[in-house]
Amino acid sequence: MKKRVINGIEVESSSGNVFADLGLPDADKLKIKSGLVIEITQAIRKLGLTQQEAAKRMGITQPKVSDMMRGDFSNLSERKLMDCLNRLGYDIEIKVKPASQPVGHLMLAIA
Fold it and tell me: Torsion angle of alpha carbons 19, 88, 108, 61, nearest 10°?
C-alpha cells in the first residue's frame, strides 16, 4: 500500500479491500460476503419488509436477519447469501475468465 503524509498524519491508501488491509484471512471471501449482505439489506428496505417477513421470504430465521443487518454474517455462507438475494427477487450472474496474474481473485460487481 502507498503511504503518504497529510496534515502531518501518515496515511495509507486502501487496497480496495478493507479486510485485506486489516490482514484478515479469507479477505476476498469476506469482501464478497459483505457486498452480498449490503445488497440484501438494501433489498429488504426497498421492499419494506420487516425482519420477520424477510426471514420467511429468504428461508432463514429472524435472528439471522437481525445479525446480518448488524454486520454479523459469519453464520451464513456465500451460497446462502446468494440464495437470499434470489428469494428477494435478484438475479445473480457468475462470470469466469482467465486471470491476468498467476493466481486469480474473487470480485463482486453490483449493477
Answer: 30
